[in-house]
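Encode chain A's predicted structure.
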Amino acid sequence: MTTVEVSTPEKSTDPRALLKELQARFDVFRNFSPLAIGIDKQLFEQMPEVSRKSLRVAMRSHTISTRYLKEMEKGTVRLNLDGTPAGEVTDENRQHAADQLRERFKKQAEQRKAAEAAARAEERRTEKLNQLTEKFGRKAR
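Encoded structure for chain A:
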């Protein structure tokens, strides 16, 4: 029985490494500019060896970054890979970016408050233990 190996033209790439490569090669990624809808098709033309899954993960990572969302929030024009205009950033797009940022900052503030409260509780616990040790601990003779 023989097995036939099917080789795919796509190579598996680490999404983080791919994103760094995209940022090195294209200004729109380096500057976190609002990207054209369907820019993945342009990327596949330029980089046919990239796996679709890796590109999808890299693009997701890029488009949910705080810097990208801030650019989307204030941006007006979407750009192609070469930096040419490719449509507009709609009010709905800007509002979505603003909502995402607001939610992210709210969650970070809540986490910071929780961490500070836990640190204060640990300080009180340590102080209480020290007081009990002083009160009931063996005294040196």
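The longest strand covers residues 85-88.
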